[in-house]
Design goal:
two-stranded antiparallel ribbon, disordered N terminus, 7 strands, alpha/beta, Nucleotidyltransferase, domain 5
């Protein structure tokens, strides 16, 4: 398999133009290391109704496994592994091994292209908060142009929010793509980190497919 084009230089991304075309983006995350997770792991207790030590141990072990299994979904227990971007038909990915460097280069790109319409799926609830909170962790300055007080700026677009009208309503990118007949996901983000370290070409292909799908569903709602 030929790896998708990734125009990033090995150390940094230099952007010498201001882009106003729609920019589609998606982040992929992974759990922190086992040592960090154990240090921050809550103290789990079985309900009082559990009397047998075997049942208590099984309950606690189950809770620990659930905590570790969901670690990649929280900026407290996970980190940014890759950030995919597509604009004007060109796709790229920020995936430096050092998370701080990845965030720093992404924000550099965003600052030079903050006037563009940034489009993601479930991005207002997940991607942007995750990026911002992990940046705070690394003491990185978060650029203006994302939020205006409590609310996101008008050029920050979430296709899930565009489609869902009722409070609390949600729809996956995969289901929305199939609803519009414009495509579907080619894997699960839950296994992205495992795939990334075992078959990076395939992982990047998965990420780029998400960008294409986000663009396709957004176009149907224009």
């Amino acid at each position: 398999m030929t790896r998708p084009k990734n125009p990033n230089p090995p150390e940094s991304v230099e952007v010498d133009y201001y882009n106003t075309a729609p920019t589609f983006f998606d982040i992929e995350t992974m759990a922190l290391g086992q040592e960090e997770l154990l240090l921050d792991m809550p103290f789990f207790e079985a309900p009082k109704t559990y009397k047998k030590q075997e049942s208590i141990d099984e309950y606690i072990e189950k809770k620990r496994a659930e905590y570790i299994g969901k670690a990649a979904l929280s900026p407290l227990t996970g980190r940014v592994l890759a950030i995919g971007i597509k604009t004007e038909g060109e796709r790229t990915v920020f995936d430096y091994q050092d998370e701080k460097h990845t965030l720093k280069e992404f924000w550099k790109y965003f600052r030079r292209n903050s006037c563009a319409q940034w489009v993601g799926h479930n991005s207002n609830s997940f991607d942007w908060p995750f990026l911002i909170k992990r940046s705070w962790k690394h003491n990185l300055s978060v650029p203006t142009g994302i939020k205006d007080g409590r609310y996101y700026c008008k050029n920050i677009v979430d296709t899930m929010e565009l489609f869902c009208s009722a409070y609390g309503e949600r729809i996956s990118l995969d289901r929305l793509g199939r609803y519009f007949g414009v495509g579907e996901k080619n894997g699960s983000g839950k296994h992205f980190a495992e795939l990334y370290y075992s078959n990076k070409d395939e992982a990047i292909t998965y990420l780029y497919n998400d960008l294409d799908l986000t663009e396709a569903v957004w176009e149907r709602m224009q």
